[in-house]
User: What shape does this take?
Amino acid sequence: DRPNPADYPLRLGQGQKIRGPQKESLNFPRRSFSRRCAIGTSPDAYDGRRDASGNPRVISRRLQFVEVGRDGGLVNAGCAPYLDYTPLTTEQKSAAQTLLRESWLSEGLEGRASAHAIKTIVPEHLREVKSRREALIDKTLMQVKARLLAEIRHWDERANTLRAQEEAGRNKGSLNSNNARQRADELSGRLQKREDELNRERQITARPPTVLGGALVIPAGWFAQTGEGGEASALRETSPTFGAANKEVELLAMEAVMVCERAQGFVPRDVSKENRGYDIESRYPENHTKAGQLRFIEVKGRVSGADTVTVTKNEILTALNKPDDYILALVFVSEKGAEKPRYLMKPFDQEPDFATASVNFRLKDLMARVETPTA
Assistant: This one.
């Protein structure tokens, strides 16, 4: 996965602190002024093969974050929530020192995050990897069998023909029946070996995730609420640009996409409050080739007539991490209500600059690439 924890060196127990997002749509409305700890985990998937050191071979490695709230709540935070955070200023660091002494920070956060990841993140990751890998293994096995069995039949027939010629005293070539039979046996051995290898690849398992690090996240609203942190206490939302989504527009857009997904047989789930880089997880229907897998939909509700739409860096990176299953859904809302969603598959083709927090896109350019929502 693209997010690199080395670029954000946060370690538990070292008092790392960062300020939560200021933008309302990214401000975790479930706990507007609640502190939380974002803990990075690595849920790896293995198959039955071994690497050069004799260890189980890793076939999928992913960085996933779990947020542990001050109120005890546990939430999957996606693969890169830190992209929407900003480091504390000197004044804010001074104001936040008292928070490091709060008792909840020493109540086994790592263990709770790991247990939550085992229960929720690991099974989903394993299911996704299994579905993708098993389909590839089945296809590979079918092609291997088709090719090698055809060669084995050829050399079997050739061996029988040569044997008959030898018995009749008519075989004068350099190739005899024993050579042909040996070639057929070698191919049979190759087929068996390849089948064994593919069977080991099919033995996909997961282990408890490794905790890589964490950070105390302090919402910007905390400084404003408490009056601490100098300039931080004066933080306010800036006025939205023309057509920027307000709460009503966002809710109408979400409902329109949920209805559209259900109409196609998908099973959608609203995860918009969890800041995963998308708003909806939608499970493919049973009659689909990807039955049981998820696709991920970021919903952008816009007032009819708006010119631009804003996409965060987190959303862009999530889309690039899941290019085949990520959808950007554009929904225009007027006084008559929400229009039918427009879907963009693979909406982004490059990462934003390191210092970029969000990117504005012209809606007319995105609309030229829309597709009709289908299963």
The chain has a mean pLDDT of 82. The two ends are 26 Å apart (CA to CA).
